[in-house]
Amino acid sequence: MAAGGGRSLEETPTWAVAVVCFVLVALSIIIECVIHLIEKWLTKRNRRALCEALEKIKSELMLLGFMSLLLTIGQGPISEICISKSLGNTWHPCNKKQEHSRHDIDADKEASGHRRLLAFPESSYGQRRVLAAAGYDKCAAKGKVPFVSSDGIHQLHIFIFVLAVFHVLYCITTYALGTAKMRMWKAWEMETRTSEYQFAQDPERFRFARDTSFGRRHLSFWSHSTILLWTVSFFRQFVRSVPKVDYLTLRYGFIIAHLAPQNQANFDFQQYIKRSLEEDFKVVVGISPLIWLFAVLFLLFNTHGWQSYLWLPFIPLIIILLVGTKLQVIITKMGLRIQERGEVVQGTPLVQPADDLFWFNRPRVLLYLIHFVLFQNAFQLALFVWSWYEYGFQSCFHENTKDVAIGISMG
């Protein structure tokens, strides 16, 4: 690092040090004030779940700061750990040809600086600079290589920060899209207050379950076959994931199951779903230890020869398609249970959600899968931005344009 012009603080003007410190302190204060204003605004609007999500974001920033401190303190000791060259030449993200090509380019860029340092060995620091410019380190003297070099630790530090930023941005974007999606449900909720809706849902009306709007959508010949059920549900998620008939039926089932009759008329199901989204956002915005473990595994699999660019970006796509299909299957199975209770229904079909309709009898498994998908997508884009920033577009991380297109489009 000294070869890149590493002057110590005793050789640096004090005004330059003061300017850097002032800028860092100013930016920190501004960020803290912005977070405080957002917190006050959320508290004023009684958005408790979003306030807790903001607290999680603040704790993640604190964790990143602590990780940054540990990386800075441990940079010297870690870089002085030596391993054999045979072990150090395994599991590289680039092949040998690409590594040698990049080393040649870096050597050409540093050649002029190398000669300048050799030309001024008179000062008390000249000898150390000559050694640094010549690439001297303790591991090289032993015929070994560093476990992780100082430059590598610095780049890892940047990647962790970029990954956390992209994860938070992904979660915020998902929440914004979810909120926009639910705006159309507001009109459906207002429709439940009209006399036309009350007449259509008259509890004194007797109908066949298959003749109701919900029955015509879900109770057909294909709903009794597992293969056809999953096939139809798979394609339905691309058309309209939450149609009006499903919303109104699920709303009615929820109200009957959870509210007393005197409170049913004025209940706003759309606002309840909105608050539920905020509660879920509080979960997915955090980066749990298990998620950090996945990040480590993703870095491990980003190895030349594993062709991770061909399968890693498709994991979140497959998971999210499975989740969307499963949700459609659950709604249809609730309709089948209505028919199992009797061919004739009174008023609106009464759906009864149950945990046994979900994988492992745990509805929150779907939420954890969505959390994983958000993080994996953030990882793909963070890796692209980080590698572009560190190595440029022409690097082994972007060996083929189609690989970059796959990673970004899947994200």
Task: Provide structural commentary.
Keywords: Calmodulin-binding, Membrane, Pathogenesis-related protein, Plant defense, Transmembrane, Transmembrane helix. It is a multi-pass membrane protein. By secondary structure, the protein is mainly α. Helix content is about 70%, strand content about 0%. It is elongated and about 90 Å long. The relative contact order is 0.10.
Enumerate how many helices there are, as a single number: 17
- C-alpha-based Rg, rounded: 29 Å
Biggest pleated sheet: 2 strands, antiparallel
Secondary-structure-derived class:
mainly alpha
Membrane topology: Multi-pass membrane protein
InterPro entries: Mlo (IPR004326)
Subcellular location: Membrane
Protein name: MLO-like protein
Task: Summarize it.
The protein has 411 residues and is an all-alpha fold. It has helices at 14-44, 48-79, 85-88, 96-119, 126-133, 138-141, 150-191, 195-200, 213-218, 226-239, 244-258, 269-284, 289-301, 308-311, 314-341, 364-391, 401-410, and strands at residues 82-83, 145-146, 206-208, 344-346.
Which features does this protein show?
411 residues, mainly alpha, two-stranded antiparallel sheet, two-stranded antiparallel ribbon, 17 helices
